[in-house]
Write a structure and sequence with these properties.
Blueprint: E1 3-4, H1 14-19, H2 30-47, E2 52-57, H3 60-71, E3 77-82, H4 85-96, E4 100-105, H5 114-123, E5 127-133, E6 135-136, E7 141-142, H6 145-154, E8 158-162, E9 181-185, E10 196-201, H7 203-211, H8 221-228, H9 241-257, H10 259-279, E11 295-299, H11 306-317, E12 319-320, E13 322-323, E14 332-336, H12 343-359
Helix pairs in contact: 2-9, 5-6, 10-12, 11-12
Bound molecules: pyridoxal-5'-phosphate (PLP).
Length: about 375
């Protein structure tokens, strides 16, 4: 069996995969409506929100685009709080649709400095929204989202959050933290194959939606709400029915385990990953105070051929880790530990690394 330890797609439990083999049903019929209502109610529990949650048939990035086009108009000023590749992507989407983006970038490997966010908001009163990444998958850093939210709300800004690799794994009480729009994706911590983005919208977000003029058709949340609230709940367009079957099973499993237990398990597993990495004589790329509980980033030491290491791990140990993205290629590698994961999975990855590191040129000092 392959040990897929990348930050998405993540392995799925057998019952979740089994659910996907079900025959198709009418996506506008009563049975599907009941499943959609059930899934939506469970998602609201795990988002810790009383707001709306929509299932979109797309990967996470589609959810980010949906969040932008439903809340902003061309020419709107937005503050992009960016600590890595996905923060940059979020800003690019906003820019492509005509927003005027003020970038607030932090060194990769570090979390956003909340005082700097506050200063940026003070300096530009016309900013309408703040874009923030909860967990930056490219660097393995989790932002202090509660504090970023406090800063945004101090200045009365809309807060739009990429929580694609955190929600359902790392605590994110959407309502308590006043996050107006929050996006996640099925193939990350949800133990489900790719195919669905899940997005929450609160009252402030709906107010923004009413006046937002960015072009939107497939992503229009007013349509999503209209169809979801019909006597037979539906999505406006044909959804990824099989992935929704799978999600229905995984949500059942998640609620059975309980959100606090899931969050605690991810913290334990992440600690095991960090301890394991340090025991090998390697160092963490992310500042440890903000190291992510869903993905651990490791600095590639001098002498290590990272590509060779990943290849041997894959071919000889069936352990699949992720490399670095963009400018981090060859400089770091990453261990994904979100969703269906235990300490045993980390043990397997660390043991394989112990064998392979010297074969790929690393000499522990
Ligand atoms: C995976 C990920 C994305 C992109 O999601 P896709 O499903 O690949 O479109 C965006 N942001 C973060 C933080 C992610 O981890």
């Amino acid at each position: 069996m392959e040990h897929l330890r990348i930050p998405g797609p993540t392995p799925c439990p057998a019952d979740v995969l089994q659910a996907m083999t079900r025959q198709m049903i009418n996506h506008r019929g009563v049975e599907f409506g009941q499943i959609l209502n059930g899934v939506t109610a469970k998602l609201k529990q795990l988002f810790q929100t009383k707001g709306d949650v929509f299932l979109l048939t797309s990967s996470g990035t589609g959810g980010l685009e949906a969040a932008i086009v439903n809340t902003l108009s061309p020419g709107d000023k937005v503050l992009s709080v960016s600590i890595g590749v996905f923060g940059e992507r979020f800003a690019t989407i906003a820019e492509q649709f005509g927003a005027e983006v003020t970038p607030l970038r932090f060194e990769w490997g570090k979390a956003a400095d909340v005082d700097a966010v506050r200063r940026a908001l003070k300096a530009e009163p016309k900013i309408k929204a703040v874009l923030a990444t909860h967990n930056e998958t490219s660097t393995g850093v989790t932002n202090d989202l509660a504090s970023i939210s406090s800063a945004a709300k101090e200045f009365d800004k809309l807060l739009v959050v990429d929580a694609i690799s955190s929600l359902g794994s790392i605590n994110l009480p959407v309502d308590d933290w006043h996050c107006d729009v929050v996006v996640t994706g099925s193939q990350k911590g949800w133990m489900v194959p790719p195919g669905l983005a899940m997005v929450s919208m609160n009252q402030e977000a709906w107010q923004a939606q009413a006046s937002a003029t960015m072009p939107r058709f497939y992503w229009d949340f007013a349509q999503a709400k209209n169809y979801l609230e019909r006597a037979t709940a539906q999505t406006p367009w044909t959804p990824a029915i099989s992935t929704i079957f799978a999600l229905s099973v995984s949500l059942e499993m998640m609620l059975k385990e309980g959100l606090p237990n899931i969050v605690a398990r991810h913290a334990r597993v992440a600690q095991a990953a960090r301890d394991g990495i340090k025991s090998l004589g390697l160092s963490l790329f992310a500042k440890e105070s903000h190291a992510s509980n869903t993905v651990t980033s490791v600095r590639s030491p001098d002498g290590l051929d990272t590509a060779k290491m990943l290849k041997i791990l894959r071919e000889e140990h069936q352990v699949v880790l992720a490399g670095g993205q963009q400018t981090l290629a060859g400089k770091i590698f990453r261990i994904g530990h979100l969703g269906w994961v235990t300490e045993d999975d980390i043990e397997i990855a660390i043991s394989a690394l112990k064998v392979v590191l010297p074969q790929a040129g690393f000499r522990a000092s």
